[in-house]
Specification:
Blueprint lengths: L6 H18 L9 E3 L8 E5 L16 H11 L4 E15 L5 E14 H18 L6 E5 L4 H12 L4 E4 L5 H10 L2 E7 L3 H7 L8 E5 L7 H4 L6 E4 H10 L12 E6 L9 E5 H11 L11 E4 L6 H13 L2 E4 L19 H5 L3 E4 L1 H18 L1 H18 L8 H16 L8 E4 L6 H11 L3 E5 L9 E2 L17 E6 L15 E8 L5 E2 L3 H7 E3 L5 E11 L5 E6 L3 E3 L5 E3 H8 L5 E8 L6 E7 L1 H11 L6 H6 L1 H17 L10 E5 L18 H7 L1 H8 L1
Parallel strand pairs: 3-13, 5-6, 5-7, 6-10, 7-8, 8-9, 12-13, 12-14, 14-15, 15-16, 27-28
Antiparallel strand pairs: 1-2, 2-18, 3-4, 10-11, 11-20, 16-17, 18-19, 19-22, 21-22, 22-23, 24-25, 26-27
Helix pairs in contact: 1-14, 2-3, 2-10, 3-4, 3-8, 9-10, 12-15, 13-14, 13-15
């Protein structure tokens, strides 16, 4: 961060480039990224990627399935680093001021395996799986946090043409049982820490015969071998050893074969299993490889999102196809200040120094809030210089000549933003964000402070993520880019909601995705499959997303609404819950928010998880006394303060009066995937929240 000695250098950096910039930098012409295309199916407004007239199906000739692609990549990048894992040096329990205990870990450097070494492990595991007694006609499930063995297990199953069922490690018992029984899984691969959960539900599982667990230093697996004796139990290393001693010829799949049944942690009801073919995965892989510039063996990717989520599986598929090194981490150990990192030791990003990173908006929002909190605490000249630097770089990124010249950018980067960049290792050159809409403020913060372009991804499990990706040289906010080269995007008019492709100035409608990334449908749910998947007269498969979008003149998509989120109030006004939530999330006091609208009332209300730092800071300045954060959230003065702040943010976001919550309930505890209130991608589960806080919602309408 800057000090007094840097003021002169900063002044030169500010003043000298202004005249140069004014003279030589003109207004940029917007690049065409997507162009209209004639397609079949329901009438609408369709766009293809501007760079490629024909849809991409494979990354290179012969890579028709993930098993083929993986084997070819391992031969191509034989001696390159591939998978890296940090060794745990130690751990301890720390007691917080409120008496709660938290585990802190001390992790060492990354230990690497080459592509050749990983291929050997995959082949051994594939053989061991068969020798263990798994029937290749039955499904294997992976129920684990993201780690190197997860990917090795996945590729091992692919090598024997075995379909893998993926299940979030945070999934609740009922959803876990439903997923395993519905797909008749016979072999379950899991973290050793999941053995306790399996022990408690074993009587309700109808098809499981084999358990393979990943060994962990701090879990005593043998304690469960006796209680799980009805099943064949083996450690991951035991299966690899079995396969090494008893090699089995591979049985490679076809492109139309089902690679994965991916269970979503959807926002309503029991999870649905999406059937993803090998062709879907390699098509998205081929397309995304064209989005990330100059990607190759010099890059390092930090993997920490759930591999059971389509976003992470797609990302790691791209990395292995491009020969990138993948280092594994976790959201709890990501940075030096992450909750599980022992004080004084280093987080994953600091040690790995990744060049490529994927993220969900909630994580980027936390990084932004953490930096701004530190700047606020430092105050004085540090705060002033940061604000000057940020404003001038913001003007440059948004297309103004002010502050765009290279010398000034270098000054700000070297003196002001260098320390911020070390939060994520200091070498990030491209980030891909997905899972939910990213706020413009957070995107700009990453552009400026981390110095990286962000490709916003839009997709669903049903399209294997491949629906839209913004490109590296597109610094606009609020948009998700054109379709990647593997798919088409189409808008279909939704008359009931008032969205039409004939709308001016921009065509609007329901977003429909067609192409090689569109999956085969829902497992054992033909009715739901037929409802949202359609095959046109040309044989093209389309998925109806339920999202409402509009196309910009350059062919980029913007998501503006969702059909299911629209509620009609008592006097006939429509409210888009998702739109309002996105606007309110920029309020400093809001950590998470769910807006609720009742057709029998004329106003909406909201459940707000309060930002602890912001609310406690306000309370201190306002002289509000309280015992704990829960008591503060219940104080009328706090509710009034947050409601007034929400009103200002809503007005700035041009929300209508009926869209602004009239009443709110402040909640002290965060919503986590473990609580079942948000998905693994941290999107809210509306029905579960409504059920959990039914009494609070009722009181808000009283």
């Amino acid at each position: 961060m800057a000090d007094h000695g840097t003021v002169a250098a900063i002044a030169i950096g500010i003043l000298f480039p202004v005249l140069f910039s004014a003279l030589f930098l003109g207004k940029k012409r917007r690049k065409v990224r997507g162009v209209p295309v004639d397609v079949g199916g329901e009438a609408g407004y369709a766009i293809r990627n501007a760079r490629k007239p024909e849809l991409a199906e494979v990354p290179w000739e012969g890579a028709t399935t993930m098993a083929h692609l993986f084997e070819q990549s391992c031969k191509k990048y034989t001696h390159n680093r591939f998978l890296g894992t940090r060794k745990q040096i130690g751990k301890e329990l720390v007691t917080a001021s409120d008496g709660r205990k938290f585990e802190k870990v001390h992790l060492g450097d990354y230990e690497w395996e080459t592509y050749e070494e990983v291929f050997t492990r995959v082949s051994n595991f594939a053989s061991g799986l068969i020798k263990l007694g798994h029937n290749i006609d039955r499904h294997v499930a992976i129920f684990s946090d993201t780690r190197a063995e997860w990917l090795i297990s996945l590729q091992g199953c692919f090598r024997q043409n075995i379909t893998v069922v993926t299940i979030y490690a945070s999934l609740g018992e009922d959803a876990l049982i439903h997923s395993l029984n519905e797909t008749q899984v016979s072999t379950l691969i899991c973290d050793s820490k999941q053995l306790r959960k399996l022990d408690s539900i074993k009587s309700r599982l109808t098809s499981v015969q084999n358990i393979i667990y990943f060994e962990d230093d701090d879990v005593e697996e043998n304690a469960f071998r006796g209680s799980l004796s009805d099943w064949t139990i083996a450690s991951f290393s035991e299966v690899q050893k079995l396969g090494k001693e008893n090699p089995v010829e591979p049985s490679l799949p076809s492109k139309n074969g089902i690679a994965v049944v991916m269970y979503t942690s959807g926002s309503t009801g029991l999870p649905k299993g999406v059937m993803i073919t090998h062709g879907n995965i390699v098509a998205t892989t081929a397309a995304v490889m064209t989005v990330i510039p100059n990607m190759g063996s010099k890059d390092v990717y930090l993997a920490y999102l759930p591999l059971a989520h389509v976003f992470e599986m797609a990302a790691e598929s791209v990395m292995l196809a491009a020969g990138v090194a993948i280092g594994y981490g976790s959201p709890l150990t990501l940075t030096d200040t992450s909750s599980k990192i022992k004080k004084g030791t280093k987080g994953d990003a600091t040690v790995l120094k990744p060049t490529l990173l994927t993220a969900v908006p909630a994580i980027l929002d936390r990084i932004r809030d953490g930096v701004l909190k530190k700047i606020e605490e430092k105050g004085g000249i540090v705060k002033n210089i940061f604000q000057i630097a940020y404003k001038r770089r913001l003007a440059a990124v948004e297309g103004s000549w002010l502050g765009a010249w290279g010398l000034e950018k270098w000054v700000w980067d070297a003196i002001v933003f260098k320390n911020v960049r070390t939060l994520l290792g200091g070498h990030i050159r491209f980030m891909l964000c997905g899972g939910a809409p990213l706020s413009g403020d957070s995107q700009r913060f990453i552009n400026i402070c981390i110095g990286s372009p962000i490709g916003q991804g839009y997709g669903l499990t049903e399209t294997f993520a491949g629906a839209a990706f913004s490109e590296a040289d597109d610094y606009s906010v609020g948009r998700v880019g054109p379709p990647p080269p593997c798919s088409y995007l189409k808008l279909v008019s939704w008359e009931e909601g008032g969205y039409r492709t004939s709308d001016k100035p921009l065509p609007r409608g329901e977003v429909v995705v067609g192409g090689f990334s569109v999956t085969a449908g829902y497992f054992k749910n033909e009715e739901k499959t037929n409802e949202v998947y359609k095959v046109d007269e040309r044989g093209m498969r389309w998925f109806y997303t339920g999202d409402i979008g509009q196309f910009h003149p350059d062919g980029c998509l913007e998501i503006v609404d969702r059909k299911k989120d629209i509620v009609k109030l008592q006097h006939g006004e429509y409210i888009s819950l998702g739109k309002v939530e996105a606007a309110l999330s920029s309020c400093d006091y809001v950590d998470s928010v769910m807006v609720h609208a009742d057709p029998f009332h004329s106003y909406c209300v909201a459940l707000v998880v309060a930002s602890r730092h912001s609310l406690e800071k306000w309370a201190q300045e306002a002289g509000i006394e309280y015992k704990d954060f829960s008591e503060l959230c219940n104080k009328p003065e706090a509710v009034t303060e947050v409601l007034q702040s929400i009103f200002k943010v809503a007005k700035a976001g041009k929300l209508q009066k009926t869209e602004i919550p009239a009443k709110i309930k402040l909640l002290p505890d965060p919503w986590t995937p473990e609580s079942g209130l948000v998905t693994a991608a941290l999107k809210i589960k509306r029905e579960q929240l409504k059920a959990r806080f039914k009494d609070d919602l009722h009181k808000l309408y009283a």
